[in-house]
Amino acid sequence: MEFIIGVDLGTTSTKVVLFDLDGQVHGYANKLYPLYQELPDMAEEDPEEIFQAVLEGIREVIQKTNFQTDSIRAVSFSSAMHSLIALDENYQPLTRVLTWADNRAEQYASDLKASGIGQEIYAKTGTPIHPMAPLAKLLWLKAEKTAIYQKAAHYMGIKEYVFYRLLGVNKVDYSIANAMGIFNIFNMDWDEQALELTGITPAQLPELVAPTDYVCGLKPELAQFMNLPIDVPFVFGASDGTLSNLGVNAIKPGVVAVTIGTSGAVRVVTDKPVIDPKGRTFTYYLDKDMWVVGGPVNNGGVVFRWARDNMFDAEKSTAKLLGLDAYDLLTDIAAKVPAGADGLIFHPYLGGERAPIWDANARGSFFGLTQKHTRAHMLRAVLEGIVYNLYSVTLALEEVVGKTTAIQATGGFARSALWRQMLADVYEQPVTIPDSFESSALGAAVVAMKALGIINSYDIMDKVIGATKTYQPEPANYAAYRDLMPIYIRLDRQLKSEYEAIADYQRKHVNAK
C-alpha cells in the first residue's frame, strides 16, 4: 500500500492523519498547545510549540503504524487562516503567532471600513475587513509595535514558518495568501494598494505558489527524527476552510458545507471569485476554477464549552464520576426542552463575531427570559443560537451565490444527534453527515494526490467520503424556528449600536482588572 500524511495546523492543536490512496485512515495523532491570552483581545500561539507538534505528530503516526516509510508518497498541509508572524532578517521570530482570534487590531479595521478604502481593498482581495486578517494586524504593528515593525524583514503565517523550518523555503500557497487581505484575487499577486497602506513590500512576503506545488529535501536531522525519507514531497496544500469543503465533498454548485468545531463556517464552491457588495462573505482560492465563498463565525463549540463550564459545573462533575461525556449529558438535558426554548433567544457572540455582522465588539445576550425559564432552557437557547447564527450566514451567502441545494455538515458538533436535527429544523432542509474523518487533513491528502498525478480531478471525493447519514427536518420544530428567527435577526440590528459602548466599558473596567 501507499500512503499520504495529512497535517492540519489548527488553533489549539495539530492533527496528523495517515491516509491510503482511497482515503481510508491508518493512523492518527493530535498534539495540543496553548492559546496565549494574557492581555485583552490577545490570542497568540508559540510558533516553536506548533513546529514541535508537527514533528512529534508525524513521528507518532509513523511509529504507531506498521509499514515501510518509503511507502509514504507525500506529506500535505492544511492550516488555520489569517495567522501572522514577524521575523528578523535571519528568520528569527519577533512575535508569537498572531491568530485569527486576536482582536487587538479592531480599531484599525473599523477605521479602514469607515474610510471607504476598506471596501476597495475587499473588492480586490475577497477578504472582509476585520481584525482577524493580517492586513489589519500589519496596521496595528505599524502603529503600536513600532520597534518590531521596523525590525521585521519577513512576514509569514504558521504554515510557511513550518515549511521554512523543515525545508528552508519561504513560500505561501494562494489559498493562505488569499486570506491575508493583501492578495489580489484577480491578478493573483500581492495587492499594491494594500501593501502601500501597510508600508510593507513584496520582498518581505513569501513567494506565491499553487496549493499543488511541493518541495523535497527535508533537513536530515528532522527526517531522522520523524522517520521520513529525506526526499519525500512536502505539498503546500491550502487553508483549513477550503480543504474542509473538499474533504466533505461539498464542491458541486449549491452544495453548502456547514462546519461547527471550536468556531464555525458556512461555505460553497463556485467557479470564479464572487464579491459581496455588502462585504459579508469571503472568497478564497482552492484550485483553478474552484473558489470557496462563505462566512466564518467565531462562536461555535467554544460557546457550548462556556455553558458547560459556567452553568453546569455539577453535571460536569457527575459526568466525570460516571465516566460519561459531559457534552452528551448536557445535550440530553437540552433535548427535553421544546424547540425554540419556550421563546428564549441567545446571541452567541462571546468572542466578538465575524460573519455575518463582522463586528469584533459584538457581545452575547439572552433575550426573552421569564420566571418559567430554567438552566435547561438557557442551554437549549445557547445551542439554538449557534445554529441561528450559522443560518444568518447562509442567508447572506444565498444573496451572493444563489440558493442552497444541499447541506453537508461536519465538525465536532456533528457527533450530536440533537445538534444535527436542530440544523435540519432551522434550515428546513435535509442535512447530510459525510462519513469522513478530519475533513481538512483529508482535503490536504487529496490535493497531494493531484499534485503527484495520482488523480486528475477532485471528482474522486464521491468515492472517498464513503457512507453518509441524512437528517430530515421535523415540521413541528421548524414552525417554532420560523417565528423566532426573524426576532433573532431584528435584535441583531437593534443591538449593533450598543456593542461598541459595552465593549469599551469592558475593556476599561473589566479586562483591565
Automatic annotation (TrEMBL):
Name of protein: Xylulose kinase
Top-level taxon: Bacteria
Keyword Cytoplasm part of the UniProt annotation: no
NCBIfam families reported for this sequence: gntK_FGGY (TIGR01314)
Keywords associated with the record: Kinase, Transferase
Carbohydrate kinase FGGY C-terminal domain ranges (all copies): 257-451
UniProt cross-references to Pfam families, sorted A to Z: FGGY_C, FGGY_N
Alphabetical list of InterPro entries matching this protein: ATPase_NBD (IPR043129), Carb_kinase_FGGY (IPR000577), Carb_kinase_FGGY_CS (IPR018483), FGGY_C (IPR018485), FGGY_Carb_Kinase (IPR050406), FGGY_N (IPR018484), Gluconate_kinase (IPR006002)
Enzyme Commission code(s) on record: 2.7.1.17
Sequence ranges assigned to domain Carbohydrate kinase FGGY N-terminal in this UniProt record: 4-247
Molecular-function GO term, any one: D-xylulokinase activity
Family: Belongs to the FGGY kinase family.
Enzyme class: transferase
